[in-house]
Recover the amino acids of this structure.
């Protein structure tokens, strides 16, 4: 069962990476930055990464400018997760499920029944890796409950 879950999560993660790669390529092309080496690479652990490839200096400068210009906007509009969405609080390394907002912070609750809910800075929260998702799924199966 673990292998099936891992294979399913890896396939989902790879499709998400392909979609992200297509979006990034399209967005960069729309501002005149071409990255011919842009592709999805899979690590030994099964995680996917977007490889930007080799970049000439001018497109590199344009990309840096675009990122710097849009960074404040991206922070302002970071999407609020759906209730129950699995997240990692990078400031603590804890895995938790989104429970709602508390002021400008996000309320997370332990995914494994490990302690009290806590608040996290949305800028220090990320999506879990494939392995972290599988760990949460297996904990739910072993514990006989979801999340």
């Amino acid at each position: 069962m673990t292998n099936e879950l891992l294979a399913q999560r890896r396939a989902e993660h790879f499709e998400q990476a392909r979609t992200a790669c297509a979006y990034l390529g399209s967005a960069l092309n729309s501002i005149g930055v071409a990255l011919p080496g842009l592709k999805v690479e899979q690590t030994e652990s099964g995680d996917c990464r977007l490889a930007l490839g080799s970049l000439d200096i001018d497109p590199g400068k344009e990309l840096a400018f675009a990122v710097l210009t849009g960074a404040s906007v991206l922070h302002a509009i970071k999407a609020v997760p759906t209730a129950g969405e699995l997240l990692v609080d990078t400031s603590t390394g804890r895995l938790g499920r989104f429970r709602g907002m508390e002021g400008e912070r996000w309320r997370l609750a332990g995914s494994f029944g490990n302690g009290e809910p806590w608040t996290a800075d949305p800028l220090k929260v990320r999506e879990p890796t494939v392995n972290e998702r599988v760990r949460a799924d297996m904990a739910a199966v072993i514990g006989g409950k979801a999340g």
The longest helix spans residues 2-30.
